[in-house]
Description:
InterPro entries: Aliph_Amidase/BUP, C-N_Hydrolase, C-N_Hydrolase_sf. The protein is an alpha/beta fold. The chain has a single domain (3-272), classed as Carbon-nitrogen hydrolase (Nitrilase/N-carbamoyl-D-aminoacid amidohydrolase), CATH 3.60.110. It has helices at 19-30, 47-50, 55-76, 153-161, 178-192, 248-258, 260-271; strands at residues 3-10, 35-38, 79-88, 91-100, 103-108, 114-115, 118-119, 135-137, 140-144, 166-171, 195-200, 202-209, 212-219, 223-225, 231-234, 240-247. The N and C termini lie far apart (43 Å).
Amino acid sequence: MLDLTLCALQLGTLPLSDSRIDYYLKLAKDNGAKIVLLGEYVLNTFFTELIKMPGSMIKEQSEQKRTALQAMAAKYELIIIAPIILVRGKDYIKAIARFSPNSVKYKLANALMPYSHWNENNFFKTAKNIDISSFSVDGFKFANIFGFEAHFDVFWREIAAKRVDCVLIPSACTLDSSLRWANMLSSQAFRYNAYILRANRLGKAKFKEGQKEVISEFYGDSMLINPNGQISQKLDEKEGMLICKISKSEIAQARRIWCFSQIARNLESYKENI
């Protein structure tokens, strides 16, 4: 297949009722999407509230959404990519779930926010083995990584080694970072001549700045970036869905023109001769 239709859903944390997500997934299916991407902290409460919740409530929240998303992936014959919190004994693990009609697989977080106002690193257990969780649909190769992980070359080297065509990035970005994220992701799409589909969450969160409490808004900006590093489609700050197509010919053309991957392989071979 030369083209494939994808969907990014731009939502805040979902309510207990499954009616809203069911509505959007049906709409995605009706528009021909094969893969649907959700942002971070959409299945679960946002981090600053999550850390105040009892473990039993976090587990119940995750289990309810996991069961619902598995059923909807089968109902609409979709692959749904959605971050979720796993509770294993006393450990909390941040993961990206890949729901398909017959199974669910997880990519566990390797890199977590370590900052005083947003310290995931102290709360979640990290995976020690790098896994970008690649998979194929209709001849296109995909990988998914968390938004924070997109800052680090170790993940992009794995993505390049596996010759991924499209990187799916769920994020929870706020605090006036819109331009910085657009620039960073556009640069990575160009460097690796791959599509990037990013789904960013909506809603508000309270953060502590010293002794003060600040309310900040998640700004959306879910987007598709093409293999030449150009933002080809983007949502604004409102709830909604982004239906987009990726093209084999556009990937092939960008890689043929720029030859970055071949040049990088040649440079790696030079190290063996040192």
